Amino acid sequence: xxxxxxxxxxxxxxxxxxxxxxxxxxxxxxxxxxxxxxxxxxxxxxxxxxxxxxxxxxxxxxxxxxxxxxxxxxxxxxxxxxxxxxxxxxxxxxxx
Length: 96
Prior knowledge:
The protein is mainly α. It contains 2 helices and no strands. Pfam families: FAM195. InterPro entries: MCRIP (IPR029428).
């Protein structure tokens, strides 16, 4: 599987039930937030499993979408480490 910044995930909309995962960060998340995170995580795990088990690419299953032409506006895009941003914001709020 090749990585592309223009990849998109398409789901069949099925939601799988999974146990709640405890957080050790001390943050409180709403049940709706936790459900959304579980749904995305479970859906992605299904895609990874299906990609790994799919030997014949002609069968119906997950397919990676790749833009045929890249968006020139994204040429200077730099990914952001959200954990770092959150850590800096937390430190800034403690200073004030």
